[in-house]
Predict the structure.
Amino acid sequence: MEFLEENLERYIASHSEAETELLAKVNRDTHVDVMNPRMLSGHLQGRVLSMLSHMISPQHILEIGTFTGYSALCLAEGLQENGSLDTIDINEELEERVATTIESSDFADKIHQHIGQALNIIPHLNKIYDLVFIDADKDNYQNYYDLVFDKVNKGGYIIADNVLWSGKVVNAKKIDKKTKAIMDFNDFVHQDERVQNVLFPIRDGLMILRKK
């Protein structure tokens, strides 16, 4: 998942804003207690998400794929004073852990946790979003994009994670279903004239899309 030399990664992290105490705890506890901790956004990507959120200054954020809540906390840092963040995840086993994390944060009254299939939940969210972060099952990236597009303000942003898929988008000896889904998604949004796009080679790849 990492594409830069380890010493360069360390240098970059050491010259980026540090994690908050709570984020560091979520990072540490996830690696100790939760399966597949590499799904966590982590320090550098978390700071990038926070910076982007501050730059956009969103009133409403939608996150598809909560995991242990790290990225939600990072994105919430840039919310307007009266803003809100809806985060959706299908994993009921992590619900209590995430709820506890949210309650102990400065954003307890702004982050709203939803448990269930995002494809079923999104149509019932009656908000228009300034920022959407997609970081869930790769097979449904295109479906999530299609569902949220009309719920994004003109000039709003959609960010999709893992779009380099550990380099498999260019280096796969055999293209599996998930890799194919990511490649098809990348091709579609790159050709979608409704958006401006740039692919950032940060960690496992962030596709940044601005709705025209």
About this structure: The beta strands are 60-64, 84-89, 111-115, 129-134, 152-161, 195-200, 206-211. The domain at 6-211 is CATH 3.40.50.150 (Rossmann fold). The radius of gyration is 16 Å. The mean pLDDT is 95.
